[in-house]
Amino acid sequence: MNALTILPVPAFSTLCNAAFTLRREVFVWEQKVPEEEEHDGDDLTATHFVAIAQGEVVGTLRLIKRPEHTKIGRVAVRGSFRGQGIARSMIEAAMLQARAAGEQRFYLTAQSDKLGFYEKLGFVAFGPEFMDGGMPHRAMRDYDKDSAVLLD
Fold first, then answer.
1. How far apart are alpha carbons 20 and 9 in whole angstroms?
2. What is the average per-residue pLDDT within 87-101?
């Protein structure tokens, strides 16, 4: 992998707008998520991260602080850059920054075919499978692992 820079960026900054463009490319065009579901009110208050390689935004995610945990979401990597560890690097960097600010509990909803990826990062799936953006998902967390139960 070429040099990778991972940065938190303000909402609607030039780099964040590039991240929104990437999300549209991955979620709306590639994965056929309805466009009206791609952006939500959380984009206004989330901490957005970008991964920059070869002078362009090639990855993004957002963190949403909730009372019970911090939610990781909208993880996307440009197709031509997948398989290089970018998503893992972004998640680890975002969690490290959040931990430095006192956050210790992380949650996400993963596309069901990506569970193994998140399990390698210390997450466990729980609850029933559900549809989001037209794709099956599972809730996952990195805390209270012993009580995580899958429901089908």
1. 12
2. 98
